[in-house]
Design brief:
Length: about 220
């Protein structure tokens, strides 16, 4: 074999060995640049809302408000119907005209009152959602810190796409697209579900708080 061929083989072997050594060194260094695995917990938000004691307490207050509203609405309606029967029994004249005007005014006042009460109930339901959501968010933070979760997210993987036709409803395709755009989780294993842990954590923390003073009835 010629000396030039031997030299070429030796050079090639040296390059190959150097490449192998560099590759081995990179392979050893590579894990140092990889981020550690992220610990994730998922939560069924509907279950949490339904089973929190705070949510149940809000429901009691809201139902009491609705019951008082219904009772007063029934009383107002009965009074208006009684006034209507009184007017029907009256003879035409200035006195009947005055009663009719009073009936119309009372009917308008009742409608305004009912609209105000509907806004009041809606406000209370909104306050419930805001308060319970804050409790869930704070509880998720405490759970994550205690059990070393990097992320606690809402599991929406079980939600189905639902569309419906209606006079003012957007096209079905648009409805489906809008729902898909809001979804974030395609699959979540049961092993990462922390719903039960979160519910217990929040309810236990609430039980340790001093009782709040009862809200005045209206």
């Amino acid at each position: 074999m010629k000396s030039s061929t031997l030299a070429a083989c030796a050079t090639g072997a040296a390059i190959a060995l150097a490449g192998f050594l560099v590759g081995s060194a990179d392979a050893k260094r590579l894990p140092a640049f990889l981020a550690p695995p992220t610990a994730i917990g998922v939560v069924d938000m509907a279950s949490v809302f339904d089973r929190l004691e705070e949510s149940a307490e809000w429901d009691v207050r809201i139902k009491a408000l609705q019951a008082r509203t219904n009772d007063e609405a029934l009383q107002r309606r009965n009074e208006l119907e009684a006034l209507g029967r009184e007017i029907e029994a009256m003879s035409d004249g200035p006195e009947k005209d005055a009663k009719i005007d009073a009936f119309r005014l009372k009917d308008l006042q009742n409608k305004q009152w009912l609209g105000f009460k509907e806004l009041e109930v809606d406000r209370e339901m909104s306050l419930k959602l805001q308060s319970v959501y804050r409790s869930i968010r704070d509880g998720a933070k405490r759970l994550a810190e205690a059990e070393k979760y990097d992320l606690v997210i809402v599991d929406d993987s079980k939600l189905e796409i639902r569309t419906q036709r209606g006079q003012n409803a957007p096209p079905l395709t648009q409805q489906a697209e809008a729902q898909i755009e809001r979804l974030r989780v395609l699959h979540a294993a049961r092993t990462v579900d922390v719903t039960e842990k979160l519910i217990v954590q929040i309810n236990n923390a609430r039980a340790l708080r001093p009782a709040a003073p009862a809200a005045p009835t209206r």
